[in-house]
Amino acid sequence: RFGNFASKAIEREGHPKWLQPQGGLDAGLQVYNSLTGAKEMFLPLDGRKVRWYTCGPTVYDVAHMGHARAYLTFDILRRVMTKFFGYELSYQINITDIDDKIILRSRQNKLFSDFCKKAEGMDIKAVQKEVDAAVDTAEKKLHGKKPEAPAADAPERAKQEYDKLVQEHELKLGQFADLKKSIAEASKKSKDDLIQAAREPLSAKLDKELGHTITDNAVAYAHARQFEDEYFQDMDALGVLRPDVVTRITDYMDGRVQKFIEKLEEENICYESRGSVYFSIDEFTKKGYDYRKLVPAASASAAEMAEGEGALAAEDAEKRNPNDFAVWKASKPGEPKWDSKWGPGRPGWHIECSVMATDIQGDYLDIHAGGEDLKFPHHDNEIAQSEAYLHTPQWCNYFWHAGHLHIEGLKMSKSLKNFITIRQALEMHSARQLRLMFLMSPWDKGMNYSDQAIDMARAEERKFKHFLGSLKFHKRNPHGKGPGEREKKLAALVTSTEKAVGASLRDNFGTSAVISGLSTLVSECYASYEALPEASLAPVEKAAALVQKTLDMLGVENLAPEPANAADYIPVLDAFAGLRQAVRQLAKEAVTSKKVEEVVAQFALKKAPGAAKDCAAAFEAFQKDLQGLAKVGKPQGEFLKRCDEVRDRDFVSLGVRLEDTKTS
């Protein structure tokens, strides 16, 4: 086994023994490890090198903000690991492109498309009959899934799970009632409107009746490729760095998956039943391994067990233990299939990650990451498979799980239809604002997606942008040079803030404390702005450098971009703003044509505007308007009104923010 471990295992309450790695770079990082349920010292096994595997998407539909919660979070942690702590990562994600959800959705889409073509020759009454039957079937199925109340002496977790399931079921009932209303409204319009409104129940009915007729693997493959492409487009839009390695399970169906399972079968860890292969929990534990390192056995729910086996699980499975799980599934008609010694089939969900992770990263992982909902059964089963295959008591040293994203008290998910897609979110908010929202919340805790959360992020973004942009302006204008008491205090705050940033990042990636500390530093810098031109900007520049360096490291970039042709625009804008301020001061006195001419001449452009012709034209119009107002003897209020138009209209149209302060 590669690497060194502490001689004495660590045993935290409710978790099996954990071996503390030794020998790698100690950067002082303490991070929450799901394997122990506590913060542990992070140490890789091989110097600075870190092997990191993150469970990627199951590409059956568009990605939503719940997915962004995980992938943006791990992008932030990945950036901190490399840019702050100096680790060298091998960062891998997988693409699950063989899965029950993909099979179902791709089949349903194909069958619905076929039905739409068939419906061209049907009258609306015939279509209505099909829709009514589909809605009735869906309604009966939904009511049949009403949660059963636990016994009075059931464990507290079972009661909590029941309360959550009741809440989710009530949400689905409400959504179904809304669906029925939409279908009723559509039936009054046209046949096409009716079909589209009833797409979901129709697709489910068609799949139940005809799903077995879809026999071409290419249907599911094309579906997966479409949503994989969209996933990466969404990640690019969010500023998530591309992985070092991307693996797809379809690429491993050349025999590597089958050989992995065959080895487990040879060691009596797996067994065949009706063409499927199952992992034996009993045989695994008999060999001395710990099963379910992440979630104690007593806390599993039936819903979690079912989720692990998938929507297309065999109903006639002959398992030796009800908790045994499928590593190879005999393909039924309508499901993709590959050859194996057990007959045509496809891999189970959990085995996919074990095969891909061990192929790329070798005999161990430093870090395995994923959403909190993957702890059980997926990650616990993945651990069992990999440890049995590699003959090791500890395959992965640190498991990192991102907290759920909640909306109105429930986890955002496809099954609950309470999600906001990443593309919808980006229509309303910038990628930078979404990243700041996640940075302002603990990475490993649940958080709410709400207007309040995004408003707080937007406010911080505005504050940082304004601070950095204002510094550029003030540096072009007179300011003090010598360090006074104010400057010494600010310089000391910059130093202490930098130390606090490091301490926060070492304490479980405490980015919320980092953002808070930077925000406080920026607030203190405004005292120097208000004291200009006497104040020195030297400590403010150091503060700005710390803010930019830290935010850039976290992926909050381009807060103070240098505009194209800035050298042409800045002289014109400064003259524009200077003339406006001079006129505002002049308006406090008696305005005369002579005085107006004097200030206009004072701020005349000294060179051609170059690329800033639009700005120069607006400046010239302002000059002419001032001269015109002076000639006809307009009162001071008219001059002030025109100055306000510069701020609220002219500069806005130029994409420039002009702000009036107490002194300028």
Structure description:
One of its GO terms (molecular function) is metal ion binding. This is cysteine--tRNA ligase. InterPro entries: Cys-tRNA-ligase, Cys-tRNA/MSH_ligase, Rossmann-like_a/b/a_fold, tRNA-synt_1_cat_dom, tRNAsynth_Ia_anticodon-bd. Pfam families: tRNA-synt_1e (PF01406). By secondary structure, the chain is an alpha/beta fold. It folds into 4 domains: 284 residues, HUPs (Rossmann fold, 3-Layer(aba) Sandwich), CATH 3.40.50; 115 residues, no CATH class; 102 residues; 88 residues. The chain is 53% helix and 10% strand. The chain has 22 helices and 16 strands. The strands form 5 sheets. A 5-stranded parallel beta sheet has the order 7-6-5-12-13, with helices on both faces. The radius of gyration is 32 Å and the shape is globular. The mean pLDDT is 92.
The largest β sheet comes out as:
5 strands, parallel
Total number of domains? 4
The CATH homologous superfamily of the largest domain is termed HUPs
**CATH fold-level name of the largest domain:** Rossmann fold
Can you give the mean pLDDT? 92
SS content category: alpha/beta
Strand content: 5-15%
What topology emerges from the helices and strands here?
Elements (H helix, E strand, L loop, with lengths): L3 E2 L15 E2 L7 E4 L4 E4 L7 E6 L10 H20 L3 E8 L4 H20 L4 H21 L11 H32 L3 H7 L1 H12 L6 H22 L6 E4 L7 H11 L3 E4 L2 E4 L1 H6 L15 H8 L15 E6 L14 E3 L1 H13 L3 E7 L3 H16 L5 E7 L2 E3 L2 E2 L10 H7 L2 H9 L7 E2 L2 H25 L9 H22 L4 H20 L7 H16 L12 H21 L6 H10 L10 H19 L4 H18 L11
Parallel strand pairs: 5-6, 5-12, 6-7, 12-13, 14-16
Antiparallel strand pairs: 1-2, 3-4, 8-9, 9-10, 10-11, 14-15
